[in-house]
Amino acid sequence: MIVPLSHVLAFAGAMFFMGLACVLTRRNLIMILIGVEIMINGAGLALVGGSAFWQQVDGQVLVILLMALTSAEVSISLAMVVYLQRSRGTLNANRFKEMSG
Amino acid sequence: MKAQLLFLIPLLPLLGAAVNGLLGMKLPRAVRGGVAVAAVAASFAVTCLLWPLGHGEGTRTVLGTWLAGTGLQADFGILFDPLSASMALMVTGVSTLIHLYAVGYMNHEEDTARFFALLNLFVFAMLTIVLADNLLLLFLGWEGVGFCSYGLIGFWYAKLENAAAGRKAFLVTRVGDVFLAIAVLWLFAALGSVGIPEVNAGAGQLAPAAATAIVLLMLAGACGKSAQLPLMTWLPDAMAGPTPVSALIHAATMVTAGVYLLCRLFPVVALSPPAMAAIAMVGALTAFYAATCALAQREIKRVLAYSTMSQIGFMFIGVGAGAVSGAMFHLFTHAFFKALLFMGAGCVIHLCDEENDIFRMGGVKARSPFVFWMFLAGGLCLAGLPFSGGFFSKDGILLAAFSQGPGWLRIAWLLGLVSAFLTSLYTFRLLYLVFAGQPRRKLHKHTLPGLMLWTLPPLALLGLGGGLLNLPPAYGGGEALHHYLGGLAGLPLVVDHATEFALATVAGGLFALGALAAWGRYRAFPGDQPNRVKGFLLAGWQADALVERSLLRPFKAIGRFCWQGLDVTMIEGILGGFASFSQRQGDLLRKLTDGRLSTYLIGFVWGLLVLLGWFLLVLARH
């Protein structure tokens, strides 16, 4: 392995927390979804790195599943985003609080 | 003669009650009253026909077994001996006249079916007491008269105070009943039997202390039914019922039951001299108390109610002095003239436009001389006119108390003398206020139904001539009742004729003194001059207030403490506290789910931070 695992993990962690920061600070639904994607990618990177380091294929398999899951999630999320934009005329996440307890 | 025919005596009134109770509203008005009168009159006729069965030892007969268990045997059994036979004759006879009177009196009432059913049931319950051959059956009748008095005193239940008076009578007499029930159970536990002859025969086995306790318990029961101190507060209020009911309660049933009980079980009573002294003292104090109260009453029926209490007190003195025949003698004469007085009072009330207040009457003699003469006859018996029935019976009791003394009985005798004077005074006060002078109020013209008038003369004759029932030898009589009762007549009385005449002279003097005092004060209406003493006596020595303060208020306070102090504050407070605490916590938690995406996301992050922190901790420890 050319790149040391610590570098990969540090990079993956940085990606994860940058995505997290995006999710927490943004109010726009699309930006929140993008943040979630970045977080998932960070997690996937860590999995691939670990898989290469230990010469085990499990992590890579998991990443493939992750990508399938993500594409499904993105397609549904985008459909909801379009629906919400049409019905409410806004994508501000704070405006959608009808499900309060 | 078949002994079981005796059961017709109580069962005929029961049959009358059943007919009126089940079918009464479908029957014409005349038939309802007719059935009731016929039932009681038939019962009277049967008593007369079967009279020979009661001679000597009497007759005991059983219809069936009511209760049988380990050692316990209570039958539907009748004991028809001189005591119960003479009592049954008086009960049925006087009740018949009262029923006849009631038909006239209740002429304009709506639901006479209920009235006559209860009236008949009342007589049935009283006859059960009188004729029962065991204490449990007696107790059944004892409760029966309590129930019927409740229904009849509160007969006009649409007015709340009438219903309250009925309830009060029921509850106050129930207090006494509890004591009687204990006495009956104690007697059964001690003697193994509840049959009255067995109890009377075996009473000698009782330990002296147990006998005293049992007699005192029976005295408490008798006090409740006979309205003696301290359970007397229900009787003045019982005047809320229709007048025939008052006559029935005061003359033939209910209040005489207590005296009859003590006479019936006299062999037990006689075992305990302290308890007999207690009986005499209760009677004497009640006689005095009620006589003073009667002095100040304004309602005609309340005067009579207090006089009943007072006269029953005399009967208790008689029992306490051991003179069972004397007590029964006074019971009989009192039944006659008190029924007469109440029925006369009903006539007076009708004549005065349903007015009860004697201060607003006056001049009734001119309106109805017949009622006046009848009422006067009753009043003279009550006041103790020499040679009337009331005079002989009261004199007999005072004589017994005097000659059996000294000690407590002498005090009872003195109180009795004072009460006799007061009796004369308040009786003539009543007579003057009601009948003398001019009417103090404008009145309409009334005619009384014949049934209300013609039932009075027989009672007047019986009352005035009642002395012949038990005329003492000093006056040339043979003490018929005393000899008839035989072994049941109580302790023998040894007294010389000089003492007897001296006491009779004193009694006659007190009668004259009371009459004179009333003449001086009331021959012209003095007007209403209320003062504190009169107010005190009018309220019956504030007995109701005393009961209210000493019993009811503490009881209510305890009730309120249990309800508001314990139940509401403690139990519901703790449970409510738990509930509202949980609710508040739930509300706090509910705020977390505010529906905002960012809140949930921040929740995730905090979770993540906790997990990471945990991992760091674990790492740091290795």
Summarize the model shown.
The complex is a heterodimer of chains A (101) and B (622). Chain A has 101 residues and is mostly helical. Chain A is 77% helix and 0% strand.
Write a concise keyword list for the protein shown above.
heterodimer, A: 101 residues, mainly alpha, Helix Hairpins, 3 helices, B: 622 residues, two-stranded antiparallel sheet, 2 strands, globular, transmembrane helix (chain B), ND/Mrp_TM (chain B), NADH-quinone oxidoreductase subunit L (chain B)
Word description of this protein:
- The complex is a heterodimer of chains A (101) and B (622).
- Chain A is mostly helical.
- Chain A has a single domain, classed as Helix Hairpins, CATH 1.10.287.
- Chain A is built from 3 helices and no strands.
- In chain A, helix 2 runs antiparallel to helix 3.
- Chain B has 622 residues and is mainly alpha-helical.
- Among the domains of chain B are: 246 residues, no CATH class; 50 residues; 31 residues.
- Chain B has a two-stranded antiparallel ribbon with strand order 1-2.
- The longest helix of chain B has 50 residues.
- The mean pLDDT of chain B is 86.
Mean pLDDT of chain A: 91
How helical, in percent, are the residues of chain B? over 70%
Proportion of residues in β-strands of chain A: under 5%
Q: How would you classify the helix and strand content of chain A by structural class?
A: mainly alpha
- What's the β-strand tally of chain A? 0
Order of helices and strands of chain A: HHH
Low-confidence stretches of chain A: none
Q: Which pair has the most extensive contact?
A: A-B, 13 and 12 residues
Strand order of the largest sheet of chain B: 1-2
Query: What Rg of chain B do the Cα atoms give?
Result: 31 Å
